[in-house]
Amino acid sequence: MGVLNVTPDSFSDGGELFRGGALSLEALCRRAEAMIGAGAAVLDVGGESTRPGATAVSEQEELDRVLPAIEALRRRFDVVLSLDTSSPAVMREGAALGAGLINDVRALGRAGAIDAAAATGLPVCLMHMQGQPTNMQARPNYDDVVATVSQFLIERRDACVAAGIGRENLLFDPGFGFGKSAAHNYVLLRRLAEIVAIGQPVLAGLSRKSMIAAVIDRPADARLSASLALAVLAANAGARLIRVHDVAETADALAMVAAMENFE
Questions:
Q1: Residue 13 — φ and ψ, nearest 5°?
Q2: Among the options 209, 218, 223, 240, which is catalytic?
Q3: Is the pLDDT of residue 19 over 70?
Q4: CA distance 123 to 116
């Protein structure tokens, strides 16, 4: 899954697709084309930054960012487009324009989100987050982070099934970096197979995250090697979808993981 942030303030690549303060659809399509050529099966389009400390944007502002991007991408590329959103309106309107997945860091927790997602008929990725982006890194605390994350995801899965979303249409994301200390993140990664064992496909988003800086002092755009190592560890633990900024390099690394299964 390649990351396409159509925001001016995302933690790693915010503003890169903007020209003169406005989103450049030409730059967006060039980035998408490169990602698809490098091996991305899914493009994750987000119009609201959820970096630590980020403030929410209005629903209309998110619509204004995301819908033109989805429309332009759908017109040019035959690839799954993911809506990185918690907004019911973005889910409905994005699905109508051809999006193929909803990726919600709030696990359909906003008012109306679960019904909107069910109405689209799209697969949904449910993520765990302690708190909200504005405060999630203010002393996160768990007795057992894996048990807490697992229980939350199971409860949200069951709520979705009750709302009419097929269990086969649900993915789990443990939410690395979302309301978790570096220690919490590494425990989650070490025990990721326990979440995989619940039975839903697992998405892992580790690319360039601050858990890397807790080990090696590198800025976000200099964390490629470490991101690749984390991607390989997640894939070995059973993650089915890896969300990344650096598609070509990650695709090569994951090809080596696959080779371990394909050669006798």
A1: -125, 20
A2: 209
A3: no
A4: 12
CA 96, 99, 105, 107 dihedral sign is: positive
What digits encode the pLDDT tens for the residues 206-231? 999 999 999 999 999 999 999 999 99
Higher pLDDT, 158 or 12: 158
- List the end-to-end C-alpha distance of the chain, in Å, as a whole number: 28
Clarify whether 180 is annotated catalytic.
no
Handedness of CA 102, 106, 107, 111 (dihedral sign): negative
Which residues, at least 6 apart from 258, have a Cβ–Cβ distance to it below 8 Å? none
* C-alpha span between 176 and 181 (Å, rounded): 9
Considering the candidates 106, 180, 223, 243, report the single residue annotated as catalytic. 243
Provide CB contacts within 8 A for 55, sequence distance 6+: 133, 134
* Ordered domains of the chain (ranges, CATH): 2-262 (3.20.20.20)
In tens, the pLDDT along 98-144 reads 999 999 999 999 999 999 999 999 999 999 998 777 777 778 899 99
> Which of 161, 162, 188, 156 lies closest to 175 in space, CA to CA?
188
Amino acid making up residue 185 = N
Place of tokens 């899914």: 42
Cα dist from 62 to 40, 45, 65, 164, whole Å: 24, 11, 5, 26
Q: What's the rounded Cα separation, in Å, for the pair 211 and 232?
A: 16
Residue 133 identity: P
What is the average per-residue pLDDT within 37-51?
Answer: 91
Sheet arrangement for strand 80-84? 2-5, 42-46, 80-84, 101-104, 124-127, 170-173
